[in-house]
Every structure is written in C-alpha cells, then in structure tokens.
Amino acid sequence: MKEIYFAGGCFWGTEHFFSGVDGVISAVSGYAQGNPDFAGRPSYEQVYTDTTGFAETVRVCYRPEKISLRLLAELYFDIIDPLSLNQQGHDVGTRYRTGIYYSDAADLPVLQEVYSAVEARVGQPLEVELEPLRSFYEAEERHQKYLDKNPDGYCHLPLRTFKYLRLYQDVAALLGDERDPVARMAETAALIYERMKFFWVGFYIVRGSELVLGPFQGPPACLRIGYGRGVCGTAWKEGRTIVVPDVEAFPGHIACSSLSRSEIVVPVQSAPCGSLTNPLPVADGISAVLDIDSTSPSTFDDTDALWLEKICGLL
Fold first, then answer.
1. Which pLDDT value is given to residue 257?
2. With helix as H, strand as E and coil as C, how does 3-57 read?
3. For the chain, how long is the longest CA-to-CA vector?
4. β-pairing verdict for 98-102 and 128-132
5. C-alpha separations of 106 from 2, 4, 102, 122, 303 in Å
6. 37 pLDDT exceeds 50?
7. Which strand (E) or helix (H) includes residue 288?
8. What is the number of alpha carbons within 13 Å of residue 96 lying toward its C-beta?
9. Is residue 32 scored above 70 in pLDDT?
10. Chain-centre distance of CA 196, in angstroms?
11. How far apart are the first and last CA of the chain?
C-alpha cells in the first residue's frame, strides 16, 4: 500500500472522487502543510480563517499493483483548475489552494513528469504546489465521507464528474485486451448510452473522404457525412472536440433527427501502427468520431468534453 496527498479545493468533493477510483483503499479528508509555528491539531474553524497555513487535503491510500501513481495524478489534474490561485469553483482562500504532497521521495520523478505534461498542455506555469509532505491531520468525523452522508450536500465538482469516472473505469475494464476496433466502439457506445441516457450515441468511421456510420445506440441516423460537413465532419476536419449548445444555430448542421437539440463530437485518434490486428482506415491521424446527441439544448459542457476525450483515448 502507498499514499499520496491531494489538495484540490473543498475536500468533500475531492475525497468523494478518489473514493470511487478503482485501486484506492481509502480517501481521508484532512489538513496539510500548516505553518511551522502552528502547534497541535487544527480545527475546521481555525483552518477556515486562512491564518493557519493549512490546505484542505485528501490522503489517498492505494494499491500500486491496481492503479499507478501516474494515473492518480492525471485524474487529480482532471478535477482541478491548475491555473487558479487559492480558488476552486466558488471556494476562495488559501485553504482551498491546490497541491500534491508526497511522503515518499521516490514518487517525485513521476509527479514531476505529470506536472510538466500538464504545464506544457496549458502553456502556462501551474498554480499547483508540488512538495514533500510536512504535516497532515485528519479532519473531524463530520467531514469524512461527507457526500455519502449528505447526498444533496455542496460539492464544487460537477456531479457528472462522478458518473463519468465510473463510466471511464468500466469502459477500460470491459474493453480489456480486445483488439478489434469495431468491437471496442460497439461496447463503448452501448456503455455511454446506457449510463448517461443520451438520445443518440455512436461512431462514424473514416472511409476515404467520408465518415461512414459505425456502431451506435439510438434511432436510425445518417449513413454518410462528408469531410468538413455538419458537426461530425467539422470535428474531423479541425481535429478537435466540438460542443454545440443549439444544433439549429450551427452552420451547415445535418439534421439526422428533428429531436436532436444539442450535440458533442469527439475525434478518435488513430492507434499506433501495428497495435491492432484489424486497424481502421485513418485520415489526418483520426480514425473515427464519437457523436452524441441530446433532446435538450445546452446539455454538454467542458466536463463532458474532458471525460469523453479520455474515453475516446481508451480506443
């Protein structure tokens, strides 16, 4: 068993998130990295004054044979704003600062690699501490498993984050070592459709200058979409995820169903050469797109984009 400490804003949501990660034995809310001159265990009320130097932090104990430190750190960066100083969501103060604190110096190289990768991706210095653990005190019992005790309680994380975490892990487990790309897409579409209850979930596969309908869940859909046409063709052409709050406002939208009101399309990057026994055709590094429709406007946002991109990464 190993441990790592994550400060990610309010510890209620951070603890609840990591409690749901496969391979994590326990996630405990507490206070870390207080001022050296602060004597004894702090109370929540003392930490709340922002005079003690403590940050709301979660101690994550995990089995390294089940989950890697790298994946834990990557998941941590998925639930924080790494550019925000002393604020996550609506919570403001030094007690809500972000940081990773390690008790084993051997963990530092992996953490530095993840940290540097995130910094390169966002193109700015991160407002995330990366330090050896100086101190940690468990928070009062009323703060432990807070969202289990109070399902309607406050959480600075979007509630869909917890559903997507479970979905992401289940997709990874069910795909396993299956090598056929169409089978992998079929399983993924079914899981997303079942868990998230979207109107339509499916894949369009790159075939020459067109996208051809692949595995899907929902009513009949368009069979072929041209390069650069509609939301799917545009996402393929531009090589990026596109979130459409109102499909009727999207120039050139292709109406496969009049019931669709909002949409998200995520490109699926091609696998490395030789990694699949039955590889899909590829254009511009993209082998397919994941298309999801909703009957309600403004269904999708950055949370959906982040997790659906991670799920497509599994493909």
1. 86
2. EEEEEECCHHHHHHHHHCCCCEEEEEEEEECCCCCCCCCCCHHHHHCCCCCCEEE
3. 68
4. parallel
5. 11, 12, 9, 26, 32
6. yes
7. strand 286-294
8. 19
9. yes
10. 15
11. 30
pTM above 0.70?
yes
Write the CB contacts of 289 (distance below 8 Å, at least 6 apart in sequence).
Answer: 203, 204, 211, 232, 235, 236, 265, 266, 267, 268
Mean of pLDDT values over 137-153? 95
Q: How many CB atoms lie within 10 A of CB 234?
A: 21
In this structure, the chain runs to a length of: 315
Q: Which of 10, 232, 256, 312 is catalytic?
A: 10
pLDDT of residue 166: 97
312 is an active site residue: no
Torsion of CA 42, 43, 49, 54, to 10 degrees: 40
Burial 198-226 (b: 16+ CB within 10 A, else e): bbbbbbbbbeeebbbbbbbbbeebbeebe
Examine the pLDDT at 1 and tell me if it is beyond 80: yes
Per-residue pLDDT at 134 exceeds 90: yes
Give the separation between CA 92 and CA 96, rounded to whole angstroms: 6
